[in-house]
Design goal:
binds zinc ion, single chain, 6 strands, 2 domains, 6-stranded mixed β-sheet, about 220 residues
């Protein structure tokens, strides 16, 4: 009798546990609409405002920057190089941080995050983009990825740039904000991952895992 009662109690607990987890699964978040994140950065004589949209859908963090081009005309091909440079260099699949992140650059004619003045040649910055950038054609895409890094709130990582005075170790980092030959470094994504932790609840699969762990524990106790 005692064993049967224990088994009954175990079943009852399991049922309740499953009930709780079923509720959690149905309430889990798989869609968070775009929110605008904005702020300002300063470093000695440098200062700029930044803004972008961030949301969660299609199993990925989605980061969207809307850019309005002014100044001299650009070709569709050149805009494509800038766009692909930003999107390819910044986007990551789930293997790097456990969650995928898609970065998207849209060319807009109003309601932009950033207005860029296009010039023919020379050096550039966040709001001035030369068509013939000093680093040459092989770095045109990386140039857009670097400048839009500032639009995402990042500092420069080379001496003489708009460096982060609170993080003096982030100098000559070898990353994209130091050199156009560099890729994105892990801490570049800190703000997006923090946003994800705050705004997107764990995937349903982790609830199921927890649920099974709970059942296993109950069964084990019943047997012993
Ligand atoms: Zn820069």
């Amino acid at each position: 009798m005692k064993t049967k009662l224990t088994k009954f109690l175990a079943l009852a607990i399991t049922t309740i546990t499953l009930g709780i987890f079923t509720t959690s699964v149905s309430a889990s978040t798989t869609f968070v609409d775009f929110q605008t994140i904005s702020g300002s950065r300063s470093s000695d004589s440098f200062g700029w405002g930044y803004s972008y949209d961030i949301g969660y859908f299609d199993d990925a963090i989605q980061v969207d920057v809307d850019v309005l081009l002014t100044g001299i005309a650009t070709t569709l091909e050149h805009r494509g190089i800038w766009e692909n440079g930003f999107e390819d260099i910044w986007s990551v699949d789930a293997t790097r941080f456990g969650v995928a992140m898609n970065f998207n650059l849209d060319w807009v004619t109003s309601d932009s995050d950033l207005i860029v003045n296009v010039i023919q040649s020379g050096g550039g910055n966040l709001s001035t983009w030369p068509i013939e950038q000093n680093w040459g054609p092989t770095h045109y895409g990386a140039f857009a990825a670097h400048e839009l890094g500032h639009q995402l709130g990042l500092f420069d990582e080379y001496s003489g740039g708009a460096v982060d005075l609170d993080h003096s170790e982030r100098l000559n980092s070898g990353g994209l904000m130091h050199t156009l030959d560099g890729g994105t470094l892990d801490y570049y994504y800190d703000d997006f991952l923090s946003w994800h932790t705050l705004n997107v609840v764990p995937e349903p699969s982790s609830f199921f895992l927890l649920g099974y762990a709970g059942i296993a524990l109950v069964l084990r106790r019943t047997r012993s």
